[in-house]
Amino acid sequence: MEPKIVEAGAGRSLNVLGDNQLIRLTGEDTGGALTLVEQANPPGVGVPMHVHANEDEVFHVLEGALDFTVGGRTRRAEAGAVVFLPRNVPHAFVAVGPGTTRSTVTAFPAGIELMFYELGELPPGPPDMARVLDICGRYGIRFLEPAQPGDDVAGV
């Protein structure tokens, strides 16, 4: 593993079911230690209640705000806030603005970027939920509220 500087704006751009991502560091870059993703989303974009079996996450809100729901309680994380979400803890989040919410998400250990790559390759339009759930399940992500065909998994 070698040190690495990732210049501003550099990385792999993805749209993962409406979630605008820039993959900044991968498991390949970090010897499997972590994945670092930048998100930039308008109000209403997020991920419904789900749980990670394999990684812990740290969100750092750079601009705007995210609402996080954990343990039946929703709290707002505004610019400058840091949120730690351990694996096996169900959570949901949604961008609430105002305007574009920018944040970083660091996942420990790495690997979740591989799921994002697969999801980012799905065709535009309403997602095939069976396919989405299969991809997520293979990476240890389980949705806790039943997703049905036609659901927008990026909207909470």
From TrEMBL:
Residues 42-101 form the Cupin type-2 domain. Pfam families: Cupin_2 (PF07883). Gene3D superfamilies: Jelly Rolls. This is Cupin domain protein. It comes from Aquisphaera giovannonii.
